[in-house]
Write a structure and sequence with these properties.
The complex is a heterodimer of chains A (216) and B (231). Chain A has a single domain, classed as Glutaconate Coenzyme A-transferase, CATH 3.40.1080. With 216 residues, chain A is of the alpha/beta class. In chain A, the strands form two sheets. Chain A has a ten-stranded mixed β-sheet with strand order 4-3-2-1-5-8-10-11-12-13. Chain A has a three-stranded mixed β-sheet with strand order 7-6-9, with no helix packed on it. Chain A contains four helices and 13 strands. The longest helix of chain B has 12 residues. Chain B contains six helices and eleven strands. With 231 residues, chain B is an alpha/beta fold. Chain B has a single domain, classed as Glutaconate Coenzyme A-transferase (3-Layer(aba) Sandwich). In chain B, helix 3 links the parallel strand 2 and strand 3. Classes of the chains: A alpha/beta (216), B alpha/beta (231). Chains A and B meet through helix 2 and helix 3 of A and helix 4, helix 5 and helix 6 of B.
């Protein structure tokens, strides 16, 4: 299984039935593929949809029904449409249970940087800051290291932040980690992965308190 | 009976060089492509645009930007428009980014006769730099001034001659908010029905906010399915 699919499959397990969730671009969009039928959720899309379904099959696209990334989507029973003010009232007002977001960098204290690399990448903010700062729970789904193999999980973020102290859980192809008051705690390891490899690829200090770490 | 229907040429008569223009839409749905083409044809320039994003390369708002008609763009992101990002990086257009829902609230405030909003979004980030900050109930917050425009161009599915509007599905987005926040509001609409034919409970924008209605003669290809976003 490709790493990104593996991350999405593990991240999907963090969801409880009937939660209101938002999926950022990239890996999070793969999560619905791994939600079992007995775990119904309401997917929120920033452009004004609650109750988004899978992408439209070829030939069934509706020109007025897209997700925030422009892809044609369907809706589920109980869905609703609303304007951009209501859409973000839902987010900032505390009605969004989980936001799954990608990351350029995450810190041990839960700081998230994912919107700008000054001078290189500056496509704007979109809904990211509000999702990161106000969702009840923020789960970062990311490859453990960047394309050059450098750690993305750092003691302190170097890039400009999206939001401070917002991340609750990090899911990578190697591990599941929680941001706790005592620091970054290793919760699960991927099958076949050695704990030392994870520690080595994590710049932040990783707390390994459980000698029998569960596998995913 | 009141009838706000007019032609595109007459509707945009009141738009001039240097104006600030709000454009509805989030991606293709809700973007007033026909009215944007009218602006292009009219040749006005030095515009400030307020829009969630700048559409994709070669479409809608991006046409105005690529033609050099836009001095400044106030938006939330340009993630799907490499041309606009390149022009921003070359200094050919000035771009102001806001968090998406904060952009919506700034416009809502403008439409509601408020001077601004107070928010903690971005309080620990670089977007706070240069902005007025205040403390509210012990919390640090940013003051974001309200946004209004000379003109708002919006797209709706159905109208009646008074200007009551109904939007469809994800084409609602910024349209009803912008419809409250400009001195002149022009709506392009896919269908016009008799006054009294719309269910008052179903109307999204009351006619009081709308100055001109322009009926679309056809749904051109720009409004259609973008193959690269289909499976």
């Amino acid at each position: 299984m490709p790493f990104k699919e593996k991350i999405a499959r593990r991240a999907a397990k963090e969801i409880s039935p009937w939660q209101i969730i938002n999926l950022g671009i990239g890996i999070p969009t793969l999560i619905p593929n791994y939600l079992p039928p007995d775990k119904p959720v309401f997917i929120h899309s920033e452009n004004g949809i609650l109750g988004m379904g899978p992408r439209s099959s070829p030939g069934t696209e509706d020109r007025n029904l897209i997700d925030a990334g422009g892809n044609y989507v369907t809706i589920k029973k109980g869905a609703s449409f609303f304007d951009s003010v209501v859409s973000f009232a839902l987010v900032r007002g505390g009605r969004l249970d989980v936001a799954f977001l990608g990351a350029l960098e995450v810190s041990a204290k839960g700081d998230l940087a994912n919107w700008i690399i000054p001078g290189k990448f500056s496509p704007g903010i979109g809904g990211g800051m509000e999702l990161a700062q106000k969702a009840k729970r923020v789960i970062v789904t990311t490859m453990h290291t960047d394309r050059k193999g450098k750690p993305k999980i750092l003691e302190v973020c170097k890039l400009p932040l999206t939001a401070k102290g917002c991340v609750d859980t990090i899911v990578t192809e190697l591990a599941v980690m929680d941001v706790r008051p005592e620091g970054l705690v290793l919760r699960e390891l991927a099958k076949g992965v050695d704990v030392n490899e994870v520690v080595e690829k994590t710049e932040a200090r990783l707390i390994v308190s459980n000698p029998h770490i569960p596998r995913f | 009976m009141i009838d706000k229907q007019t032609t595109i040429e007459r509707a945009i008569e009141a738009i001039h060089d240097g104006d600030c223009i709000m454009l509805g839409g989030f991606g293709v749905p809700g973007t007033p492509f026909m009215l944007i083409d009218g602006l292009l044809k009219k040749g006005i320039r030095d515009l400030t645009l307020i829009k969630n994003e700048a559409n994709e390369d070669g479409m809608g708002a991006s046409k105005l930007i690529e033609a050099g008609r836009v001095r400044k763009l106030i938006c939330s992101h340009l993630g799907l428009n490499a041309t606009a990002i390149a022009m921003m990086n070359r200094g050919e257009i000035e771009v102001e980014f806001y968090p998406q829902g904060i952009l919506a609230e700034k416009i809502r405030a403008g439409g509601a006769g408020l001077l601004g909003i107070i928010t903690d979004i971005g309080i620990d980030t670089i977007i706070k730099e240069g902005k007025q900050c205040v403390e509210v109930n012990g919390e640090r917050a940013i003051v974001e001034p309200a946004l209004r425009a000379n003109v708002a161009l919006i797209h709706a599915a159905v109208a009646d001659p008074f200007g009551n509007l109904i939007y469809e599905k994800s084409a609602r987005n910024f349209n009803p908010i912008m419809a409250t926040a400009a001195d002149v509001v022009i709506a392009e609409v896919e269908r016009i029905v008799e006054i009294g034919a719309l269910n008052p409970d179903a109307i999204h924008t009351p006619g009081a906010f709308v100055d001109h209605i322009v009926l679309m003669r056809e749904i051109t290809s720009e409004y259609g399915i973008l193959e690269h976003h289909a499976l």
